[in-house]
Amino acid sequence: MPMRQPISMRHCLNAFTRSLHFSSSDSASVPARDETESLLTPPTKVLKPAFQRRADRDWIVRNLEESPARRDSRNYLKHFKQEKAVSRKSQSGQTTAENVNQDSWQLHKTGVNLGNLYAPARAMEESPTFTREAPSERIPKTVEPLHIALVKLRWPQGLDKETLGGIALTLSQLVRLGLNIAVVLDCDGEEVAEGLELDKIWETTVSEQVGRVVDALHEFNEPGVMVVEHALGVEDVKNEMPTTVHVRGGVEVKNNRLLLPLLEDGIIPVIPPIAYTTKNLQKRRVEPDDVVLALTREFAGITARSMQGSDIHPMPPHLNALDVQDRPLLDRILILDPLGGITSRDRPDNAHVFINLDQEYRGVRNELTGVHTTRTKRGPTSLFGGSNPFSKFVESNINFAQAKPNRHTKNLDVVQRALKLLPPSSSALIITPTAAAVSSRPQPDDETAPTGVRTRRPKNPLIHNLLTDKPMVSSSLPDETVPHHRPRMPTANPPTFLKKGIPVTIIPAAPWEPPSPSDTCITLENDPRIDFPRLIDLIDDSFQRKLDVHAYLERIRGRVAGVIIAGDYEGGAICTWEDPPSSSPNQPPIPYLDKFAVRTKSQGSGGVADIVWRCLTRQCFPDGVLWRSRSNNPVNKWYFERSVGTWKLPGGNWTMFWTTEGVEEEWAKEKERGEVSGGKWDAYVKVCEGVVPTWADGKRPD
């Protein structure tokens, strides 16, 4: 078999123009399909010639590269790499104006709901991101692997035909954008089933829902769709110890030749939760989550047969000959659940926006199951005792039945166990089927209002996530900016974005408190928990200038409140306790953000800035923190969204930010009483004016 060609954007957008041909407005121009036509036969009646499809694919890639939101779409373009390096060209004002009037034409032409990511809207162009430098202007030359998304659709019997069709349209759009789809059906209800009895009623339900899903996907996915029932095997011995790796008794992919060739061609396999015993080939009902984990192990290349050297059904030769980095890559785990994202009692919209699993998994799971850990100054205590070096491994790899797991807990568990097997770039999204069905087809409320003002079409969260690798709403925004209600989905949670993430080290343990005789400040250069040279290198890299280390240490000596370190020094923060001025003798030490740094390669993507910020404002300084920034710093837009208030200091060089509530109100009351100074406002201003920059170049302040 010849080597497969690199699956670049020229291959992965292989059916570019079909989706809108099936909307009601265009149906008259498309010949009706014969209902007896095979489900696997692509709709050749509407296919374009190959050269036209290639031109369409190049067109959308060019628009993504040249859009005002290229800093968002560049993450997608970098991940789904091109065969050739592409330079971006700046758009003139005339081109921008022309493109504004072509928004609806672009959506009709592509059939892919890119939201406003390449529409030159001013709001999108000015959307803040934590980056100090302009993004790289070239896409590196390389060959990309086969990108795969694993979709679990729960409770399809509760979806009407229109919603199911919207989901099918969205999944077909993901295929056009290079993300090949495999669908696992889960017909279980909200209550977690006790047993897995293979009864006739369940079989009939699954068969009917498989047919509905296949019909919907076949309507929109040009390459086709196929039901795959015989790819999975299961051992007779039950798996009593659920772990992240394959153990005896679990579900396993026994015939990957029924999956990978389909995915390569853009065909969507639909997999019911059915497996066959390895000894006598008896049909068994299995947990849909176990199917997801079995497919994850398969696509990650760590199945039991590969570890045992078995040659039963090896990877196809043309895939096996590729380098490891060019083999299939499971990019996304997509859980479509009517309940929506993971519940959070601390957010006004009732759901976690982003979960950094490495840091938050245990805490979120304990909250869902009602299990509480005691927190000391040194951090949360292990259920097995903090002195046991085995406890962390046990708790992170075994799901203990502290209480009967609910559906949110099961969704969290399956995502955590799957992402542990995948590269750090992989991620998961838990979302309602209704939200996933948002498409580029006109919606009723998209019609022009009597005032003549037409609202933009809603973004599809799945397409947005693929292009940006981010949630729809930043997780580090203050709760006050999060909508408290969702008119479209009143009973479901908003989406939750999850990544394997990075560990976060907080020194000392949060929350931070002012120093006392019994609890003195740490010293950065001598604390054994801090790799001081790497911390300085992080600051130098983030600010793109050298720190005068000696002068800086002298300035913060005896003032350090704490340090946050994200991952392998990918991001971090240094905070201090600043003395209030003599005019404010009654004010306690002021919590001050002295340095907030994210490595250049992680700025604008990856969520590192959000992770550090959430730790800073929600754990370390929940009552508020003060900082300043150059008035022309490009990060200020990002800071502005996350602050309670801002003020430009006299002189024009600095802008003051704070997250403390009530600062302005307190100042207004002081002014009414005729008090000139002495309150928090005066202390904040004097602290920001008094901090001396300590950069080695001695140039502009920063």
From TrEMBL:
Residues spanning the membrane: none
Localization: Mitochondrion
InterPro entries, per database record: AceGlu_kinase-like_sf, GlcNAc_Synth_fun, Vertebrate-like_GNAT_dom
Catalysed reactions, as listed in the record: L-glutamate + acetyl-CoA = N-acetyl-L-glutamate + CoA + H(+)
Polar residues bias spans: 88-100
Matching PROSITE patterns: GNAT_NAGS
Annotated stretches, region: Disordered: 81-100, 435-458, 473-497
Primary location group: mitochondrion
One Gene Ontology MF term: L-glutamate N-acetyltransferase activity
BP terms from Gene Ontology: L-arginine biosynthetic process; ornithine biosynthetic process
Family assignment from sequence similarity: Belongs to the acetyltransferase family.
Protein name per Swiss-Prot or TrEMBL: Amino-acid acetyltransferase, mitochondrial
The organism of origin for this protein: Lophium mytilinum
